[in-house]
Amino acid sequence: MKDTTLVVGATGNVGAQVRRLLVEAGRPVRALSRDVHPEEAGVEWVRGDLTAPETLIPTLDGVGAVFLVWPGLDTEHAREVAGILAERDAHVAYLSSAGIDDGRDEQADPINAMHAEVERALDESGAKATHLRCTSFAASLLEWADQIREGLVRDVFGEARRTLLHERDIAEVAVRVLGEGAHRGERLLLSGPTPLTQVEQVRIIADTLGTRVRFEEVPLDELRSHMRSEGWEDADIEGMITAYAAMVEAEQPVWDTVERITGHPPLGLDRWILDHEADLR
């Protein structure tokens, strides 16, 4: 009987929550990692690397479900990985992006291009996949942690709106979907409870923590210089800027998927901040 769930990306923000919820539910868990991890009750850690797809094969013995996070923008091995998963007939919940535009042959930015390619690889392989198309993760705000402690958050597009998702909500949906064998072949659209501008996000952070934090908008040329220094290509930089600019102009969607599947509304930003208070102070 294939009753084990393989968690790929088991140390990430969402994967760690998936791992924990599976253990709490008493389900056998196998966690894939490039590195050795200490023993953990209810979790079997195995070594594997999606950039070396052959390492995935022995980790799938007895596995009936897979939570899949793709490790970066390079999709060179996506079709080989998808083929391996299809051969094992495992139900895959893939952590994808709500920013994918199905009407475009090429996505507007590199992140959504990567997700679209992995989705395509899974679908064309015949894998039994559910694509969890998520809006922005609240955990992305951890990138501001040092600035929050200093009382000044500097970023581009202060009026860009995002519907932030708590990683626990994503994990709950994934665990329900895989546990029930439901929604195979579907794209589930997941969002947080309400769109918030970046200025509003900083205000909520300050109010929830009881500290003084303000937002200051950064000139785009400063962002470009910073991204170039980190090795980004100009085309990808402009794609990311275009994506952020669209968040200013376009209305950000809110969907009821989290509540329909988990039975409770999505968690708000204030709850996420309290859950990560130690990381932000």
TrEMBL record:
<feature type="domain" description="NmrA-like">
    <location>
        <begin position="1"/>
        <end position="225"/>
    </location>
</feature>
<dbReference type="Pfam" id="PF05368">
    <property type="entry name" value="NmrA"/>
</dbReference>
<protein>
    <submittedName>
        <fullName>NmrA family NAD(P)-binding protein</fullName>
    </submittedName>
</protein>
<dbReference type="InterPro" id="IPR051604">
    <property type="entry name" value="Ergot_Alk_Oxidoreductase"/>
</dbReference>
<dbReference type="InterPro" id="IPR008030">
    <property type="entry name" value="NmrA-like"/>
</dbReference>
<dbReference type="InterPro" id="IPR036291">
    <property type="entry name" value="NAD(P)-bd_dom_sf"/>
</dbReference>
